[in-house]
Amino acid sequence: MRPSDKSSRKFLASIHDVSPRFADEVDRLLDQLVRHLGGPKLAMLVVPDHWDSAPIAEDQGFQSRLRGWADAGVEMFVHGWAHRDDSRHSGALDGFRARHMTAGEGEFLGLDHATALARMTAAKKLVEDVTGVAATGFIAPAWLYGAGALSALPQAGFTMAEDHMKVWNPQTGAVLARGPIITWASRSRARIASSLLFSALARHALKPMRDVRVAVHPGDAHVPSLVASIDKCCAALLAGRRVARYADLAADHAATRDERAAISAS
C-alpha cells in the first residue's frame, strides 16, 4: 500500500488526566474532539487517584461514566496512579526533566522497578475492573519514564506505551508509530505561547507523516486560544487521514510483519 493512501495514514487523539477532578473539562474536550472525529474513536488516559485527592474507587458516578465511554468504544490507557512526582532525582538529566518538562507531575520518572510495578499493577486492575475492558496500554504522566518504569512495563503486562516521540510495544520493543505528539500547555502565558507556536508549525510540518497523534489536557479547555488551536490542528491533519485507534497501530504492525514473513518465505 502506498504511504499516501488515506487508509494507511492515521490520526490518533487522546484526552489526558481523566479523573473525577476534571470531569467537566473531560466532557468539554470529548465534545470538541468528537466533532472532528465523528464519534468517540479516541483514547482516554485514566488517573486512578489524581494527586491522591480524587479516588475513582470512591466515586461511583465517575465509574459509571468510564464504563459508558468504554462501552462506546473509547480506548482506556492507564496514566500512572496519582500523577504526582514524589521522587528525589539524583541525576542531572532527570532533575532537569522533572523541573522543566512538567509541573511536579512526572510520577514515574524517579520510581524504582518494584514501586513502578506495584503502581502499574494496581492502576491496571482498577481501570479494568471499573470499565470491564482490558487496558490498551500505559502512558506515564508527562510522558516521562525512568529506568524503573521502563523495566516494569512488560512485567505489568502492558503491550503498548507512548512517549513524546513514539508508540511502542514493551513486550517486544517494536516501535508502532514515530513522530512528535502534538500537545498544548496551559499553566503559564509562556507555555501557552510556546505550545501555540509549536502546534501551528506542527500542523504543517507533520502533514507528510504517516501517523499523527494529538493529545489534549483538562487545562486546555479553559484557554480559548488553545481550544481554537486544537480545532485548527485537527482539521488540518485529518485531511487525507483516517481516524484511528491506538489498537490499529498494533494491528497494522502485525499485518506488515506477517506480509514480510510471507514474502521472505516465498
From TrEMBL:
TM region(s), chain numbering: none
Gene Ontology BP annotations: carbohydrate metabolic process
Source species, domain of life: Bacteria
One Pfam entry name: DUF2334
Gene3D superfamilies: Glycoside hydrolase/deacetylase
CDD domains assigned to the protein according to its UniProt record, in alphabetical order: CE4_u10
Protein name, as recorded: DUF2334 domain-containing protein
